[in-house]
Amino acid sequence: MQLSKRILTLTDGGSDGWDVYRRARSMAEAGHPVIELTIGDHDVPTDPAILDAMHAAALDGSVGYPIVPGLPELRDAIAARVQARTGAPTTRDNVVIMPGGQGALFSAEAATCDHGDTALFVEPYYATYPGSIRGVGATPVPVPALPEHDFQPQASTILAAARETGARSLLINTPHNPTGVVYTMKTLRGIADVCKATGMWLISDEVYDTQVWDGAHLSPRALPGMAERTLVIGSMSKSHAMTGSRIGWIVGPEEAVEHLINLSTHTTYGLPAYIQEAALFALQEGAELEAEITGRFRHRRALALEVLSKSNRIHTVPSHGAMYLMLDIRATGLSGEDFANLLLDEEEIGVMPGESFGRTAAGHVRIALTVDEAVLEDALRRLVAFAERLAHAA
């Protein structure tokens, strides 16, 4: 039997660039002492108090069919949090609960694009972006954000792509995975101007909104004329180390949210209520819990920048957010993929090649700050020494 073209072409065939990650994981499972600086999952599990709240909610009977839009109290809490953090007026009617940020991404693309439409996304990109677009029957078109612009997307480039393709939507991510870049107000205003000029929807992935190391989080939804054309993706995964709980949301115009609720009714039928109650508990715990999680990555970033500053062969992309650093290793003469494979073979350190995130990140590698500080410092000192050896051998 023949499967649908939509599912057969979800990843566009060929390697997805994640071979180094899979090889590092296989080596670790086989007993090699691999230091994995690959994916952005927390090394410290969800706080036990959140898990206790989840357990108590399940035992208390919150195990039946959930309310599809999400618990009203949770939607209220998210709306209040978004309004406080961004300044954009938000109520529960602007919020729909989704099964994680990934479920929210897919739903946002489904809400904004018809079959055959074009959807833009900024490159470098999180790995699932083009597949999410293909999954709703649209055509993904990358818009390059270049190293010479510190990976800040340029409004002129986006405008040219939008006019050439007639795109219906643009997907951005700030703070940004994989580079750690936080889009400036100038960048966001340029993006907003293009969206308004072309009639595009903006899908803004803001799951790293608590991980801003310099300045404050900026949401394009708060800019003039953008609330009615922006869908914001949020999640508990990064802010509260709840990656496995799969709880996210979309914030958008009331009419769009009404239709997204209808979509959820026909797909996931909502998220388990005991998980939602745990998320509500976590949000009600306030800033202290979030500060503990973000503080961990703030300290690791400072340490990493100190170690990497000693290298003459590695340039650290200016980053101000998220749990990653992007390293420019072009001075070694290798591609990101070759560098990552050799580093894994010779030093048993796993990093992600920049090519995993699109062609604009070629010649770079991404490190995730997801191991404790002693292990991270050791890994980075060895990485710097490795780059120096490559340069001397060339």
From TrEMBL:
<keyword id="KW-0808">Transferase</keyword>
<feature type="domain" description="Aminotransferase class I/classII large">
    <location>
        <begin position="34"/>
        <end position="383"/>
    </location>
</feature>
<dbReference type="GO" id="GO:0004069">
    <property type="term" value="F:L-aspartate:2-oxoglutarate aminotransferase activity"/>
</dbReference>
<keyword id="KW-0663">Pyridoxal phosphate</keyword>
<dbReference type="InterPro" id="IPR015424">
    <property type="entry name" value="PyrdxlP-dep_Trfase"/>
</dbReference>
<dbReference type="InterPro" id="IPR015421">
    <property type="entry name" value="PyrdxlP-dep_Trfase_major"/>
</dbReference>
<protein>
    <recommendedName>
        <fullName>Aminotransferase</fullName>
        <ecNumber>2.6.1.-</ecNumber>
    </recommendedName>
</protein>
<dbReference type="GO" id="GO:0006520">
    <property type="term" value="P:amino acid metabolic process"/>
</dbReference>
<dbReference type="Pfam" id="PF00155">
    <property type="entry name" value="Aminotran_1_2"/>
</dbReference>
<dbReference type="GO" id="GO:0030170">
    <property type="term" value="F:pyridoxal phosphate binding"/>
</dbReference>
<dbReference type="InterPro" id="IPR050596">
    <property type="entry name" value="AspAT/PAT-like"/>
</dbReference>
<keyword id="KW-0032">Aminotransferase</keyword>
<dbReference type="InterPro" id="IPR004839">
    <property type="entry name" value="Aminotransferase_I/II_large"/>
</dbReference>
<comment type="similarity">
    <text>Belongs to the class-I pyridoxal-phosphate-dependent aminotransferase family.</text>
</comment>
<dbReference type="InterPro" id="IPR004838">
    <property type="entry name" value="NHTrfase_class1_PyrdxlP-BS"/>
</dbReference>
